[in-house]
Amino acid sequence: MVDALEVQLAPITKQLRAYARRQAGCRALMRHYGIGELTAVTILAELGDCRRFSSSRHAVRYSGLDVTVHQSDQRRAPGHLSRQGPPALRWALFDAAQSARRSGSPDRDYYLQAADRRGRNRACLAVARKLLKRSYQCVTNAEGGIYVGGSFIGGAVREMEACWPSGVGPVGVGVKPPRSCVS
Fold first, then answer.
1. Number of alpha carbons in the 13 Å side-chain half-sphere of residue 23
2. For the whole model, what pTM was predicted?
């Protein structure tokens, strides 16, 4: 039974990987540490048209990775994840954030600090939120270009390569990314 399903999934997975390599939005997302071909396709498919979000904070809220708050008078306490968005998007971001545990990850220091304060799972969620904010900024690039239906409108793909943490990626060591790409 499992073998039959794997045979059916193989051509679909191959097509999705080819699609990710062709699409500029997926290629920009795959430049982030931890985001592969299938994860990039999932993020773009679940986020959809990013023009509907006015900021990366709204994209985080849409994904369900935001934390609820219980507040009364002077007391304020963080709650749980709202989980109000697509589960596939949360899964893909959490899966990509799991790679922050590795020693070569640019987010490893952030992960370790959060893990000391809150624990490993919450640290992965914090990295997932950070990764979503960075992904949103890369998809809606510095010039206001927006990924819609497989193409970028109003910006150069070359600027998408700049959406990296400082000193990492194709921008080069020591080169700072544009302010709009920093989360």
1. 24
2. 0.70
